[in-house]
Amino acid sequence: MARRGGLRDAPFDSYEDYAYSGSDEEFDLVDEESAAKASQFVTSKFQHFVQAYSSQLSSIEEALGTSSSPLWCVDRSALAVDVTPTEQATFLELAGTENKVLNKIVATLGALQSEAALLESEAATQVFAPLAMHGEALTGDEDADDGETQVAMGRLLPLLQSVCVFVRRAYDVVRNLVHQLASLYSPAQTFFVVRDIHLRPAFEAIGTVLRVLITLEEIIKQNARLKDGWVLYRRMVNNMRNDPETYDTDEDELRLLNRTLGDIDTTLFDDMVYQNCVEQVFDYEDIVNVTTNPTFKAEFGYTLNTWYQDVASRLGSPSETTERGQYVALCGLFGLYFTLYQETRLGSLFKSLWEAYTVVPLIHLYGNVVWVPTDFLALTVPELMGAVAKSGDVNAARGAYLSRLASELPSLAREFHEQVSGWQVRMESDLDARASLSALLNSRIQLFTQGIVLAYNIGHMYKTAMGLHTLLRKPLTPSRIMALCQMLELLKAIEHTYYRRSPLIADNLGAMVQQMTLALQASLAPIKSSLEQARRVDNTVLDALGGVNLALAMLDGPASEARRMLLHLGLAVANSKSVIPPDAARELSAQLRRLDMLCSLQRNLYLATETSFVYWSRVILPTYLKDAYTSPATVHKLPYMFAALQDAAALLAKVEDFNENVSLASFVDEPLARDVEVELRLASHSELLVVKKTPFEGTRDFAPYFALKPMVLFDRVYDVKDEVTHYLNVMFYDLTAVALQDWKVYEEMRNLAAAKWGLECTPSHLRGHNQQKMLDVLVIMRNIGAFVARYNYNLNNQFFIERSAASKALNAIDISHIAASIRTHGAGVMNTAVNYVFGFLKDQFTTFKHFLFDDTIRSRLMKDISFYKKNAEALGNVYPYERALQFHRDIRNLGTQGGLSYLDQFRILITHIGNAMGYIRMIRSGGLHATASEIKFVPDIVDMLAFQDMVVEDGLSAQSRDAARLLDSHLSSLAENFAEGSDYFKILVDLFSTEFAHPDLAFLANFFIIIPPLTINYVEYMRESKERLLKKNKDGAAFTDDGFAMGLAYILQVLGLTKAFDALHWFDAVSARVAEQEAKVADGAAARSKKRADVETARLTLDKLRVFKREFDLLYFTFSGALIFFRNTD
């Protein structure tokens, strides 16, 4: 041995370094030692893997506990078990008997059966849902624009093309199956004797495809929005063809589109989907003959009769499962037979099919689509209608059936409830106490299939009852609604029981399937032995033996769907010339039926308990939810109804822009929350109750509602406990904020809620009182009308001061008070205050419009505007002071109310509007002030530290990371609020500007011409108010009232009249008028004598003019400042 080290010990230079130089015996010894070490290494590694995986599974099981999901929703579960047997093998690989011809036949028919099953699956998952749900997004919108309908249809166009391809593929499968069977059952066929072989599974596959086509046709036919939308879309395309340039397209593209639409129209929208299939050409000359093939015709008729006998024996019985679907397929297959042969010899079968309406008056196909078999048969085979009842008799029988069923619904629901309850008890019980393993497995087989049968029976009853009420337009009484809802609950209870027992099913299903296959093998073994020992062996015996061998081979492996298809075909071949005795054949058929149900347990469970159809009967929900709220003892069933509604989520996912509002809040959450609040109030104020409750009366028990697990509905999680807790949180906070002195009462109610029902409400964290004696911002905004009337606004210093008070002191409110109130209630109160002010302004502007619309005022304003326009150049573009003064006097001459003229009242209205805008300004400034008082502790608001990154870098705990993230978020919010702020002025200007732009309000444009007399009125008012400050009786005294200037600026900006008022140059006119009066007084004083009285009179007149001029200047400065606030609102 040159080296003993490995590759990692040292690099090698050449292959010879590792060359072996020992003997063969040494080599074998080394090889055995290496193999032993390798085996030991692999074993040890696998052991470590198993131990680690076992530990991981144990931790998962411990974390999940008894439930695999915290939500009451099977779809949201973290774990799921799929017990469907599967196998990766083709039909040719499975059909491996010594009979090569038989192998090819069963492989071909099996592949076609599989294709039919695949078509059925694709239709259910990809085709039916979007077609049935089309137009649901426009539900309730009767005035929807046609354009929306065409857009929705345009989105559906790719799907319609796919459906056309799907339909043609279904036609091909039907034609291929018919050709294959016709070729087998042909007098000219000599390679395989089929004289006594009945291949019913192949005919059933044809029926399956025909049932799919019937369902598709009914969905399209019964969806009025789909058909109407298609007509509108075709009309739109035709209009485009008449003028392609307008729509930016060319004629070739439109021609291609129109050809595609025509193909879709003839394939889908002519209500001929099924009829086109059965009327297609099946005869190929010199290749295959169908219509002139007597052997195939006889076999076809025999299959129809035997299949109907099997279906009729269980249709409407307690053992019924999928027989209604088979009945639809059978009717479709009968229509194909009659179309091919026009044979009236099967009139008895037609009569039997027709009379089945007494058992099943209608059949639910999909969603809200129901199928009436008598209507279908009358339309498909009208030639045989003479031997059956008239349509009037059928309708009467259908009404009688509904009356009988409606009266029995409550008792049927109770009976179903008892059966399901008993089955659930057995499912949840310990089933291991049996005499033998075989008895245990047989018991479980019966138990697992019993739940499926129960679910099918309940589902059929619900669908029939709802379908008949809808078809016959009969109302549902509350008792019947509750019975139907109880059936839905039972369906989901069965589903949930299977889900809970899925570990048991997964553990036992393989053994149960194996036991059933062994029983089938034991039943087939004597048949095989008798065929092998037959004295006369001919082709029929050999074919029967080949069929038995095929069946036994299919039973020797996983019971996959492909194997079961070949098993049915093998048994059909084996039973030629009744090789299998009738009793044994019936027993084999029953065993095969149980085997199929067991192997497709999950699929059958889905088909039996799927409740997406409840979406179309959601009108029953309000009655159900109201009953659920008034009956706490039954509220534990509510999750089952939610699970039934959740099945519609997959359908709704097919609808774009769908907004369904199926809310629990209005029926359960809100009434429950209100009742809980009342109960808490009564409990906290029990000492104040005049009439005390006796111990026997008790209180309402809300605990069952809060014990419900969270439920899922349309991707939203409903938690009754969380919803009520949120309601109480909001209520406690709002009422504590309004009346801080009552915080102890609400704290006691919060503690009671936690003690009685486990409702953990969040503390409000509000201070028990305000340290500053002031009007609270909430009080102001709720009484905004009284506030603007009782307080005067100062624009420069930003404060409000009370007009008058009973005491010697007046209340004042400034920015610091507003900021303190905002810190108490939070920044959200700012937007609420703006909303209150907006409502107040709406009322004030209504009075404003009425004043300007008055005939007297409007005519005078229009007259002044006309005068100024005509004489503007002569007046030097300055509105004459004398005309404004005359307007002021004329208005006063119209009369007064309470000592105030109409112009005084209009000025007060504008002042109130300005005070409201001043309050908005103080709110915004107070918010910035409150933010600034908090952000002053932040060293640098531009380059702030990221605390979360530092905590993550230091590897601190998850709680520390959450705290750091919240701190970063709060600091970022503070910085944004400090740097910016909402422009409430712009918002309020934009809101009213849009409304006042209406042509009917054009008279508001006259407002600017009334401002000159208004300012004269305001100056006189302010002069009188200031003079009263020096008097003993100070009623009506004031030193500031800037709300008038603020209101003028705001209204001018809203009406867009700022430039129109500037064009009057009104304040220049006032200055010129004062200068003129001063000069006149001075000239008069100089001309008159130097008497003391004349001098004193002149001085008083000049003082009066100066006061007048000063007040006008103050108004001008304040008005100019107010305009700045609205400069950026355009």
* Rg value: 45 Å
- Mean residue pLDDT: 83
Strands of the largest sheet, in order across it? Answer: 5-6-7
Count of separate DSSP helical elements: 42
Bin the strand percentage: under 5%
Report the biggest beta sheet as strand number plus sense, adding barrel if it closes.
Answer: 3 strands, antiparallel
Can you walk me through this structure?
The protein has 1130 residues and is mostly helical. Among the domains are: 146 residues, no CATH class; 349 residues, no CATH class. It is 67% helix and 2% strand. It is built from 42 helices and 9 strands. Strands 5-6-7 form a 3-stranded antiparallel β-sheet. It has a two-stranded antiparallel ribbon with strand order 1-2. Strand 1 and strand 2 form a beta hairpin. The N and C termini lie far apart (96 Å).
From the structure above, extract its key features.
single chain, mainly alpha, 3-stranded antiparallel beta sheet, two-stranded antiparallel ribbon, 42 helices, 67% helix, disordered N terminus
Secondary structure layout:
Layout (H helix, E strand, L loop, with lengths): L23 H41 L26 H4 L5 H34 L12 H39 L15 H23 L1 H19 L8 H18 L4 H6 L15 H21 L8 H19 L5 H9 L7 E4 L2 E3 L1 H8 L10 H38 L8 H36 L5 H23 L1 H31 L6 H17 L5 H14 L7 H18 L1 H9 L11 H10 L7 H9 L2 H4 L12 H20 L18 H4 L4 E3 L2 E3 L1 H19 L4 H15 L19 H6 L1 H7 E4 L4 E4 L9 E3 H11 L2 H26 L1 H17 L9 H13 L2 E2 L2 E2 H34 L11 H8 L3 H22 L4 H13 L14 H17 L15 H13 L2 H5 L3 H22 L4 H34 L5
Antiparallel strand pairs: 1-2, 3-4, 5-6, 6-7, 8-9
Helix pairs in contact: 3-4, 3-5, 3-18, 4-5, 4-6, 4-7, 5-10, 6-7, 9-10, 13-14, 13-15, 14-15, 14-16, 14-20, 15-20, 15-22, 16-17, 16-19, 17-18, 21-24, 24-26, 24-27, 26-27, 29-34, 30-34, 31-34, 33-38, 34-36, 34-38, 34-39, 35-36, 37-39, 38-42, 39-42, 41-42
Protein name: WASH complex subunit 7
Organism: Thecamonas trahens ATCC 50062
GO biological process, one term: endosomal transport
